[in-house]
Amino acid sequence: MSIDRRRFIQTLGQGAVVAGGLGLFGPGELFAAGKTRVVVVQGKDPYKMLLAAMKVFRGMGGIVKGKKVILKPNMSFKNPPAWGNNTAPEVAEAVARLCSESGAASITAVDHTMGAGGRSIKACGVGPALEKAKVTVVSAHKKTDYVKKRIPRGKQLKTTEVPRVAAEGQVLINVPVAKQHNATKVSFGLKNLMGLVWDRRYFHEMINLHQGIADLATLLTPQLTVIDATRVLVNNGPQGPGKVQTLNTLIVSTDPVAADAVAIGLTQWNNQSLSLRDVPHIKNAGLLGLGESDLSKVKIIKKRV
Questions:
Q1: Is residue 53 within 8 Å of 302, Cβ to Cβ?
Q2: 66-121 residue pLDDT tens
Q3: pTM check: above 0.85
Q4: 92 assigned to some structural domain
């Protein structure tokens, strides 16, 4: 979907929330107040779950057909899927499969992993699963893999370095795992975008972490967020090991802020029931016009397959 500058400004003036904005990727749906949709789907087969969820958004083809697609799963840690600290291989593969079947021109998965040299990509199972689905998998662990980008809408984060391969994409699909996080309480879609920057330390030491995450999302705004809550690490995150709950759930939305806001209520995190006030980066992203954080204005559609 494309919008010209005049329509973009008119839409903002009417109080709508715009997903996409002026970042690297084109704008997604326009969200008038009260029209944001988030699908919460439960089941045992991630492909069937995703297929059911995407019917709400008229299928994957409208997002990916003919486009260079960038997938951002979490492939950070050299741990098996049972630990729940990386995206489940079967969820990542389901997203890739549906993108391919829906006419994506190309599909590339990229992550700046915590493991040296990207070894975790194979060890966690996500890399092999995506390669099986004919996806190009990139470990962005060298400084030469990155290009510097300005962030005009950032409140504190004004520039950052992102993988060149991601900057060359046309559509960003975020495929995070839902888990507890010792620095941000939880890690869902918006936090997962930090796997697409070179200098994560800058976020933790030089600026407010929560504002930095929101600012980054103005540059790297996903057209689709698929939060993997099939296995959920509820304490000792982000790496674990810790307590893992099997929820067999996906949260799917074209609004990255609303998807994260819904995910807060999935379960208790570190034995605490959290609200939006406990996770400021989600609210901050909403204030930057990236989506809807007020769940009273979000249509939550529940499905079981």
A1: no
A2: 999 999 999 999 999 999 999 999 999 999 999 999 999 999 999 999 876 688 99
A3: yes
A4: yes
